[in-house]
Amino acid sequence: MKTKHSAPLSVTSLAAAGVAALALLMAGCSSSGGGSGANPQPSSGGPDTPVTPPPPAAAQSTPTAKVTEGAGNTVVSAGNAVSEIGKSIQDAPLPLLPTDARKGAGGVVVNAGEAVGALGAGVRDGLGQMGSVDNPLGVTVSSTGNVVREVGDTVVSGGALVQGLGTEKLAPLAPLTTPVGGLVKQVGTAVQGGGDKLQAVLSDGAVAQVTNSLSKVIVPLTSKVTDGTQTLGAATRLGEPVNGLLYKVGNTVATGGSMLSNTQAPVVAPLGGVVTEAGKTVAAVGVLVHGNGQAGGNPLGGLLNNLPLAGAGNGQGGDGAAGGGGALGPVGALLAPVTGLVGGVKSGVGTSAGGGDSKPQLPILGGLLH
Fold this sequence. Notes:
Layout: H1 2-32, H2 63-91, H3 99-125, H4 136-142, H5 144-164, H6 174-203, H7 205-236, H8 239-262, H9 268-285, H10 299-305, H11 310-314, H12 320-323, H13 329-342, H14 363-369
Helix pairs in contact: 2-3, 2-9, 3-4, 3-5, 4-6, 4-7, 5-6, 8-9, 8-10
């Protein structure tokens, strides 16, 4: 009978021991993992330390870079507009000009526009991305090779234009135009190759090291300058209204550019993109004087109403300092005769014990702008 009960007791004790060991193992894993929270902290130096660090957060381009990017986009749009004009020349019926010559002339304009666009793209993708790329100056400098190559394409198209002048009705000119055009094409081909070599030289080696070093100086310098202009805008209380003014003016210009693009006119429509990008650039400039880059209500009216002219105009402090005294008080004193002629600066300081409105009021300009 004893031998019959010994096996079951042995199995039961082994099972209990296994459950206890499993519980201890789970408890050890929980303690080494830092608890059962959603983001357990790995122990220092232990096996839980991640081998690959998490990717860094996406870098933001500086305010100066945003304005530069807009300028680059404007140049790109200008190049596109020139290229569209060149395509119109290629398709335009010109009875006195041979077909090959017309295509060559249009090709010259198209490639010239592409050269301008390559220049703008270099500014946009390089200095226009300061703070978000490692070597923004190097990107812009190396793009010079693309510009030179497009210039070479323009010269090649010029050779096609010269050769085309000796075709059709102007065939008698062929003995002169054919060799000259061929020579021009050879020059253009050489310029194309030079552009490729130039890009390779500017992208690697000593030039890249120099541009990388300069980029490390330029990026923080522009950031410090922007911080200074934003601080000045906040101190003088002009940052927000000036930003709002630029924002509204830029949007108005951009809207006008969209209207030009929608006209579908052969020459006018391509210019709409240039106007639109120029408007966007103007709207982005406001961030240089106002930190959060947000537009206000009536920017110009706010600018005039927020100028602290009253404190300096009456020579009194006290309650008037809150509404009229400020960094531009001396300027208000100098402008007092002019503002008096415009409509007078009304200040409530000293009129009664209750205070009144201490903001300067410009009746004529204020009435026009509100």
